Amino acid sequence: IQPMADDRLRQLTDHVWVYLPATNPRLLEPAVGIIRTAHETILVDAGNSPAHAQQIVAALGSSGAPPVKRIIYTHHHWDHTFGGETIAAPETQIIAHTRCDQRLRIYDHDIRQEAYQAPRRARITPDMIGMTLFLDLAADPNFVIRFPNVVFSTPTHELVVDALRIVSEHVGGNHTDDGTVVLVEGVLFMADAFYAPPPAAAKPGVGPDFGLIERFLAENHQFYVDGHTGVFTHDEFSRFYALRK
């Protein structure tokens, strides 16, 4: 894994990079996948805010990446989608499973409500930087969520761009039912699919989705990228799984 000019930008394979999660987990800046072909860049997720998105755009520019022409959303949660409007041009394809599209549109309505925001603000502590950012964006009438404009309802969606095959698969998972993973050139972008439900949706007895982890490991990919930890080889991800089971 080779570092690039920005120390959060790492090359994994010939065409696949990742913009790593923030080292401070309280920022809630997740990993963003970067797929570079001869003529375009495809992102896996869009960052958690305009500021995070601007960091990603700057890293792409300094590394000489082609223009971003497509973004694939792995699920609707704010930390993976709120940078979309900053990164995407009007003609950019935003690709997502239909359940993600539906969830994101409901989410956009719900988070704007005072009944949603007030109890969450009451629980915020000064060190909860990411959640403060989220609520500030939700309360900002000028903040725009970029919705998908290429929506698929089949289990998988395949792109072939400059002979590079990119497969998105809706897998659901315990974290949220719209979870999608993206496989390209031996790299599996898992985002948060195998995570436990987020705190606001926590359910007794529901934790990480070990069934999904076992399935991903059985597929024997070269690299595994999760939403908030980073990059694993197969052996590293296997050990990560063993420590949590």
Summary keywords:
6-stranded mixed beta sheet, 245 residues, globular, 8-stranded mixed beta sheet, alpha/beta, single chain
Describe what you observe in this structure.
This protein is of the alpha/beta class and 245 residues long. Helix content is 31%, strand content 25%. The chain has eight helices and 14 strands. It has helices at 50-62, 78-81, 84-87, 98-111, 114-123, 129-139, 210-218, 234-244; strands at residues 2-3, 9-11, 16-19, 32-36, 41-44, 68-72, 93-97, 150-152, 156-161, 164-170, 180-184, 187-191, 223-226, 231-233. The strands form two sheets. Strands 1-2-3-4-5-6-7-8 form an eight-stranded mixed sheet. A six-stranded mixed sheet has the order 9-10-11-12-13-14. Strand 13 (223-226) and strand 14 form a beta hairpin. Helix 5 packs antiparallel against helix 6 (129-139). The longest helix is centred in the middle third of the chain and has 14 residues, at 98-111. The model has no long low-confidence stretch (mean pLDDT 94).
Widest β-sheet, arrangement of strands: 1-2-3-4-5-6-7-8
CA-CA gap between termini:
27 Å
Radius of gyration of CA atoms, rounded to a whole number: 17 Å
Helical segment tally?
Answer: 8
Shape: globular
Q: Strand fraction band?
A: 15-25%
What's the β-strand tally? Answer: 14
Q: Helices and strands: which structural class?
A: alpha/beta
What's the pLDDT, averaged over the residues? 94
Low-pLDDT stretches are none
Largest sheet: 8 strands, mixed
**Helix percent band:** 25-40%
Order of helices and strands: EEEEEHEHHEHHHEEEEEHEEH
